[in-house]
Design brief:
Layout (H helix, E strand, L loop, with lengths): L6 H25 L9 H28 L7 H5 L8 H23 L1 H4 L1 H7 L2 H15 L6 H33 L2
Length: 182
Amino acid sequence: MNDYLSTWTLIRASGFLAYYLLTLSLGIGLLSTISIMKKKKGILIQLHQFSGWTGFLTIIFHILLLWRDSYAPYSLAELFVPFGAKNEPLLSGLGTLSFYLFLIVLGSGDFFMKKLGKLWKRIHMLVFPAWLLMCIHGMAIGTDSSEPWALLIYAIGISFILVLGFLRKVDKKILKQAANSK
């Protein structure tokens, strides 16, 4: 098989693609809460949901490839039971936990948002630990993670989220001060 289409290459590519898409979804979600983006909130929410679900489906593709890999195959139990993998149990387990947290966030948001009411927002905040666990999993277990291009991908994604998180916090503080001065 061509090296560019080998299972190993697809496992690595799907991991990076999932990281990119879920980082994009988280960033767009943060951006949509900033007051100057109110007029664009509808399109931002659509992009947030699309990139989130596409990223999650990419994780499923990543898992299926790991299961079918002939070099270092994972059993279904190793893939779905946190910390049960023979290969890097801690780091694999962090990836598994991240998968479950993203599943809870996506499932509660799209299917139970109205029924959950205010509880939905608390559940939705699980996206932050899910994203962090995904980052740790990818940076620590990824075979390319020490490569300069991979470090750059992680650095850009992490910086993107930190800057948007900071802007969101500043925006909320400004809005609160404006409300208090009225």
